Amino acid sequence: MQLLSEQEIERRKDREDLMKLGINPYPAESFPINATAEEIHKNYPNNPDQYQNISIAGRLMSRRIMGSASFAEIQDATGRLQVYVKRDDICPDEDKTFYNTVFKKLLGIGDFIGINGFVFTTQTGEISLHIREIKILSKSLKPLPVVKRDEEGNVYDGFTDPELRYRQRYVDLTVNPEVKEVFKMRSKIISGMRRYFDDHGWLEVETPILQAVHGGAAAKPFNTHHNTLDMPLFLRIANELYLKRLIVGGFDGVYEFGKMFRNEGMDRTHNPEFTSVEIYVAYKDYIWMMEMVEDVIQKITESIHGKTEVPVGDKMIDFKGPYRRLTMYESIKEYSGVDVSKMDENGLRAVCGEMGIEIEDSMGRGKLIDEIFGAKVEEHLIQPTYITDYPIEMTPLAKKHRTEPGLVERFELFVNGKEIANAYSELNDPIDQRERFEDQLKLAARGDDEAMAMDEDFLRALEYGMPPTSGLGIGIDRLTMMLTNKSTIQEVLFFPQMRPEKKINIASDEDYVALGIPLGLIPALRDLNIHTIDQLKEQDINKLFNDICGKRKKLKLDVPNPTKEDVEKWLS
Fold it and tell me: Is the pTM here over 0.90, yes or no?
């Protein structure tokens, strides 16, 4: 059973009344549109003659009834436009029902309408549309939240509850139009990056989301099962191993924008489903990749903001290259004062204990170093900074460093204390790669549920030969957070993962009877839209008494009226 508010009940009655008048509140035919609100505001002053036969559609967002004439606002995808409605214009005959009943009473805020008319300027100088005809396109059965703004347009009482905004993004986008700008900017970031890659001749591809072996990153996967093949599958945690197969197959550069899925925690910068782009370019190394990343991010920032400096919280971040470079060991020594470069696992465990860093028995040397780095270094990396040359234990898929034993050729880009990009000189020695996978299996045996699995087909591909290659992954969600000055990942995802909504416990007949309510009066309660015990307890005694007696008579219930004392006992 659906619980309805008084407004929702009233809107359903309006829907029925429209249908009784022969008006379909959800017509099937298309509605022709030849202008938008934004276009009218922008171009009408210079070309008024071109706006004498305008057709526009959108939501009715406000209305001021003034007798035989009214002002209202319509909102389309581009913005709002004031409209002027005159009774005799939309009802030229003697029958004024459409204005007096339909427009004034049965139309509601949030309803979609299509209108035809001409644009003019009011005496106060506001560009408006004088309506000749109105067509109802979709009746809204739920009222929109009322967002209050001052004369300058600043919101002072809005739809701001994060739980509701993220869960009901469709409402958020409707009543908070500025939210759309974040997602338009997100789209520009992706299209700008795609254009950059295409201009360099790299091929956009698609790889499997359902994978028999999870690999390409250290993360816990989501498990599923294919019934026909009767085999377990995983939602991909990365697309790296498939993209490198394509480099083996002869492509010089491939990239993919796609969803990744990691069965891990949720916080301000993590969502279990996220978007990244991964790109692999043959005959390149991680040093070349650093220069490419600087170039692409700088160009995207300039294309969006017109400059390379952007505000992020209370800081100003400059994305102009070149970026600072620190090795992993150098960064830990600089910000913690400890040199971990020569420490074994036992030594690292002792350091973690001294620093108060929580660790687990399953963690090997690589993860222990990563924990120290996360606790002592990340928060200091505000301006774009490359952390380079990671311990080999941390990166099973990267090539061994050309000059530093025990390290690999890898970098991560950190901005405002968060990692937004990760890149390697890719490991293309199949024997070395097999040994690294075997080390991962040992970690998995110790209980590390983020350790990589053995991928025999990927090893087979490497055995056919892969050219020297550099690979990169960029987190689109986090990059968007930086470039739109948003502090949580939920702000840049249309539909972030949410906890299940709390279920409303609908009261049964037995629940009401247990309170002393006669079974025969329960239909009256339900007709009053009282469906839970909490709703019942919130009622005013006198009002409920009068309402119950009225409903009993209207519904012709074969049961006596309750006394006021009876009603008082129900609520106590």
Answer: no
- Mean pLDDT for the chain overall: 93
Domains of the chain: 6-144 (2.40.50.140), 180-323+383-491 (3.30.930.10), 509-571 (no CATH)
8 A C-beta contact, residue 496 and residue 489:
yes
Rg (CA), the chain: 32
Residue pair 233/453 in contact by the 8 Å Cβ criterion: no
CA–CA distance, 444 with 571 (Å, rounded to integer)? 59
Helix 178-199 with 476-484: angle, nearest 10 deg: 120
d(C-alpha 492, C-alpha 166), whole Å:
10
Q: What's the CA gap between 132 and 409, in Å, rounded?
A: 69
For residue 322, whether the previous peptide bond is cis, meaning omega lies within 30 degrees of 0, is yes
CB 151 within 8 A of CB 26: no
**Sequence letter at residue 10:** E
**Residue 267 scores a pLDDT above 80:** yes
Q: Is residue 476 classed as helix, strand or coil in its secondary structure?
A: helix
Nearest residue to 369 (alpha-carbon basis) of 336, 402, 400: 336
SS3 390: strand
Annotated binding residues for Mg(2+), written as ranges, equal 412, 419
3-state secondary structure of 345: helix
pLDDT digits (tens, 9 = 90+) for 195-240: 999 999 999 999 999 999 988 888 899 999 999 999 999 999 999 9
528 pLDDT higher than 90:
no
